[in-house]
Amino acid sequence: MCQGGNYLKNFLIKALDSQATKEFLEEMHRIWFG
């Protein structure tokens, strides 16, 4: 689960290339995966 989440997060960061989005995804990752 965590590996899939990291893959998705990294894909979205690359696709969107936005600092705000990157910070949001990092926060979501902390909430979902600890």
Architecture overview:
It contains 2 helices and no strands. Helix 1 (2-16) packs antiparallel against helix 2 (19-33). It is 88% helix and 0% strand. The chain starts with a helix and ends with a helix.
Largest sheet: none
Q: Could you state the order of secondary-structure elements as H and E?
A: HH
What structural class do the secondary elements suggest? mainly alpha
User: Whole-number radius of gyration?
Assistant: 9 Å
User: In angstroms, what separates the terminal alpha carbons?
Assistant: 12 Å
Into which percent range does the helicity of residues fall? over 70%
For this structure, the quaternary state is: single chain
Strand content: under 5%
Structural domain tally: 1
Keywords:
34 residues, 88% helix, mainly alpha, 2 helices, single chain, flat
Provide a quick synopsis of the model.
This protein has one domain. The protein has two helices and no strands.
